[in-house]
Amino acid sequence: MRVFRQIIIFFTLVFIWLYIGWRIFFTLPSGFSLIPAILLLLAETIQATQNTLLFSIVYKQDNEIKTPLLNRRATVDIFLATYNEPIDIVRRTLVACQNIDYPTELLSIWICDDGRREEMKNLASTLGVGYITRDNNTHAKAGNLNNALTYTHGEFIVTIDADMMPKPSFLQQTLGYFDDEAVAFVQTPQSFYNEDIFQYNLGQGNNIPNEQDLFMRVIQNGIGRYNSTLYVGSNTVFRRSAIQAIGGFATGTITEDMATGMLIQSKGFKTIFHNEVLAQGLAAETLQDYLSQRIRWARGTIQTMRKWNPLTLPGLNGVQRLVYSSYFLYWFFGVFRMVFLLAPILYLLFGIPALVATLEGMLLFWVPQYILSVIVEKLLLENRLKRTWSSIYEVSVAPFLAWAVLVEVLTKKGIPFKVTTKGVTTTKAKINISYLIPHLIFIGIGLLAIIVGIINLQEEKSEGILINLFWAIYNVIISIPVILLAREKPKVRKAERFKKKLIVDILDNNQIISGSTIDISESGCRLFVGKLQSFSDNLSLVIHGTNGRYVVKGSIVYYDTYQKGYQLGVMFHEMEDTVYKLWVKEVYGKKPSENLFTYKRKTGILHVVVTYLKNRFSPTSKKKRTIPRLETEINCQVIKLDNANETLHDISQRVSVSVLSLPISEKTNAVITDIGYGGCGIIVKKIHFNLDELIGVLLPNNETLYIGQVVRTTTKRNKVKLGIKWLDSESGQQVFDYIKNLSK
Q1: Could you read off the pLDDT of 368-413 as tens digits, one per residue?
Q2: Alpha carbon of 515 to those of 420, 512, 529, 567: distances in Å?
Q3: If we measure between CA atoms, which residue out of 298, 290, 64 comes closest to residue 198?
Q4: Structure pTM?
Q5: How would DSSP label each residue in 449-500?
Q6: Any idea which residues carry the catalytic annotation?
Q7: Which residue, among 634, 641, 639, 666, has the nearest Cα to 742 in the 3D structure?
Q8: Burial of 29 (0-12, 13-18, 19+ CB in 10 A)
Q9: Closest alpha carbon to 482 in 547, 568, 590, 400
Q10: Is the separation of the CB atoms in 275 and 189 below 8 Å?
């Protein structure tokens, strides 16, 4: 298999560069058309270079996780840099830091607060962690971290973002590398426990990985073998002396992380990438935040390269220069993607060719390198990369990134440092118009170009028209999910939920009811109980977790049927600090499954569109039912009552026809549409009820009269639906169980 991989990679690279050679010598037009042609050729050449580098660095992927142990006791400072993040997010990250398995006398945790907030200072005091601030925000995050260096003395420093919660084993898995005195820092992947905007807005969930996972898990692992690991700003352990050797964290750029790592490597230090998720945080939660973040990274990278050119920076080796230069060029993908999008449009509408090629030439040179590249990607990366999704990611940001990069290159305009918003909640969907407009314009022009191309193809059987027609159609198809992304779904949860089954004792009304969790979150859980029970609004729970027993109090926010039993949504009341600390470890402490970082089946564009439409017409909403309801369709008889003590005999005396003696099939005048422990919904025929009136309900083959009160009436299409509330809970339970058995 290894020999086969070598052969297929070799031939793939040969065909890639044969294609580039063909493009250079045989496909360039003359005159004005040479301008878009050169841009297209430049984009393809850079793409070929980056594919060559990608195949080279991931060819010998080392997926074995090595965990050396530190053979001495060392002091560690954790710097949590914050500016304006919500206090609840900072609190849980601090608690996660306190849950790290490391001697407390050797571990110091610091809030580095550039927001100078009194509530952060109070939080530090409450949790028993250090608090550092300053009277200015010079050099943003880098300045904040450098300021913290002057107040601390730990041999090692951990930089962690305000939302990035380390796993308990974070230091155990990383500190051992520092037995080698040449090691300057150990970088672990940035990973996220919430869905990114592509997973969430397009309804894909875990069918696709996070957009950053390819870089964080595959590319970083590859370049790490060549001592070229990029420092990404968080989830990192530094040797203090290495930071001091370069004069502190790099300033003068908004991507201080990449610059800091590159400067450390230029001093001859070793850097390590530990390919194991040891901390997780929040991915950008809105489309606008995602765009702003990517623009900041792109412009910051250009700033860094302008100040420290990797091709001339003393001390870097050849591979490091290549890696950083490739990373710099990567951020021009917005410009190159716009060239790919506009090239066929220019030809179909204006006759301006970006390449002059025959169909035979494309089949001989483009098709083989494309097919071989896909095969190699499958062999080397398995299901961690899909070209379709790479195109979706790039097209979605291309207009904005292209403009931002050109502005940065041409104007050197300063960029204010902006923290990505965390903890976003919304109750309504919204459409990002500013994002949508350029994509709609492109699709409109693209469709026009396709129509013109089809018309021209009827008149002139041109291979150039045919090639550009297929190209334009592909671009429009790729843009469909890009357009759908503009609708941002509501985010009603403040805390993410994770599926986890734990045994739970529910303490209520002097009884213990057994249940289990369906999923858990920082602020609540969803419980499963096998039998219908009567619960108070407020409960006490004993949750038997992996870290011990958690005694918590909570309120029922919904109660409904679930599979073969019932589910309760419970919102926790404020926990004691010791319980909260352990619960954070329970919720966030587990390492994620590697299955989350791969593409699943059925993630093509057609499936994406179908899934999106299904989700679009079943919008997210909060569960509001506090008593279970079962949908049904049972014929019954309803009778107005004079009072709650009226009996069947009393009723028979005043009803004109002795309907009580008739078979149920002949005397039904209503249908029960849904039934719950506390009431039911009934559609009535030929009878009118007012609110608060008493009603008697007779069920098939059941001589018991169940009494309720009308609490809601709605009329639709000449039918009246009543909302009925049972007068006593015992009758409600009897009716529910009877109809549930009848429905079976």
Answers
A1: 999 999 999 988 888 889 999 999 999 999 999 999 999 999 887 7
A2: 39, 10, 5, 10
A3: 290
A4: 0.86
A5: HHHHHHHHHHH---HHHHHHHHHHHHHHHHHHHHHHTTEEPPB--SS--EE-
A6: 114, 257
A7: 634
A8: middle
A9: 400
A10: yes
